[in-house]
Amino acid sequence: MSVELNALRDQIDEVDQQMIKLLARRLALVEKVGEVKSQHGLPIYAPEREAAMLAARREEAEKQGVPAQLIEDILRRTMRESYASEKDAGFKCLNPELRPIVIVGGQGQLGRLFARMFRLSGYTVKILGRQDWEHADELLQDAGMVVVTVPIHLTLDVISKLNNLPEDCILCDLTSIKSKPLQAMLDVHSGPVVGLHPMFGPDVPSLAKQVVVYCDGRGAEHYQWLLQQLSMWGASLCQLRAEDHDHGMTLIQALRHFTSYVYGLHLSKENPDLAKLLQLSSPIYRLELVMVGRLFGQDPNLYGDIIFSSEENTAMIRRFYQCFTEAMTIIDEQDKARFIESFAKTSQWFGDYSQKFMSESQSLLKHANDAIHRG
């Protein structure tokens, strides 16, 4: 049996080596694709092409007795690397006449990411950091666009200093709140203004499929090239009013970060053995624990700024606390029937999204389980 098993394993190793060579060839072709897209100004992410290709490969896989989901998983993972490779090929410059782009706070992680993307697209980029304000007038006097990316609590003060920009200069920000910064930019600058919120962190390998929210301010015709440049980088654009954006962020960011903070705080007070918790964890709990732990591996000032950024956030968290208190009453009274009734009403509110989220989570959990090594 051992001889037969080793022979089969040798054949598997040979196939694996062939797969690696094929993947290397695919990535090399992707680099050439990136060069062609750069020359012709095409976005690195083409959703229609991706969907059609995946559908065709799934059909081909099924004909050969290969699970369709297997080939889709492999291709999606491969495409993620492909988008990163295409990015390195650079991008066509959609506004070659633009004067230098000045990134205020460009030494931060997000600022460095956008500086790199603009430079990959052929723009001249200058950085205005904390130590450079004595030279600010010199840096800003010929700016074609100014991008503000500083901590939330500094944003309004920094914007107030940008009161002597060229009239045709585009002023924008990358802050995760929009109403106050957008109004501040409109007040301080008479030229084109737009608010941007990249819905991702600075560690993304590429902007393919990443969402960028934009809130129109003034002179939209002057910054359409910027929106098109973001699309070329692969980003998915979402247009919102600043007020609608901020209301959404109250739920998506402030409340979510606060609940993760409280859960992590509670864990620290209970002081369990995290290694043992991970041993006992199902994939879904491990994923939840990972997301909570991820929060505490980052800058507390960032999350403090997000949570404390508005009275709306405080009001939302207070309503959540009231909801939690009501739920606690059900537990105190051991009222299982009331729990089930409340559960059913909430399930009804989610509607068809419950099954959609169930399907999406099953896929995520399979990937999470694959990544676990249990000795």
UniProtKB/TrEMBL annotation:
Which Pfam families does this UniProt record tie to the protein?
CM_2 (PF01817), PDH_C (PF20463), PDH_N (PF02153)
Q: Which pathway, per its entry?
A: Metabolic intermediate biosynthesis; prephenate biosynthesis; prephenate from chorismate: step 1/1; Amino-acid biosynthesis; L-tyrosine biosynthesis; (4-hydroxyphenyl)pyruvate from prephenate (NAD(+) route): step 1/1
Q: Which UniProt keywords apply?
A: Amino-acid biosynthesis, Aromatic amino acid biosynthesis, Cytoplasm, Isomerase, Multifunctional enzyme, NAD, Oxidoreductase, Tyrosine biosynthesis
What species is given as this protein's source?
A: Vibrio ruber (strain DSM 16370 / JCM 11486 / BCRC 17186 / CECT 7878 / LMG 23124 / VR1)
Q: Can you give the residue ranges of the Prephenate/arogenate dehydrogenase domain?
A: 99-361
A Gene Ontology CC term for this entry?
cytoplasm
Q: What is this protein called?
A: T-protein
- Subcellular compartments: Cytoplasm
- Any single biological process term in GO: tyrosine biosynthetic process
PANTHER family reported in the protein's UniProt record = PREPHENATE DEHYDROGENASE, PREPHENATE DEHYDROGENASE [NADP(+)]
Q: Which InterPro entries match?
A: 6-PGluconate_DH-like_C_sf (IPR008927), Chor_mut/prephenate_DH_T (IPR008244), Chorismate_II_sf (IPR036263), CM_dom_sf (IPR036979), CM_II_prokaryot (IPR002701), CM_T (IPR011277), NAD(P)-bd_dom_sf (IPR036291), PDH_C (IPR046825)
Q: Name one GO molecular function term.
A: prephenate dehydrogenase (NAD+) activity
> What's the chief localization of this chain?
cytoplasm
Gene behind this chain? tyrA
According to the entry, every stretch annotated as the Chorismate mutase domain falls at: 1-90
Oxidoreductase among keywords:
yes
Q: Which domain of life is it from?
A: Bacteria
Catalytic function, reaction form: prephenate + NAD(+) = 3-(4-hydroxyphenyl)pyruvate + CO2 + NADH; chorismate = prephenate
Q: Which family does it belong to?
A: In the C-terminal section; belongs to the prephenate/arogenate dehydrogenase family.
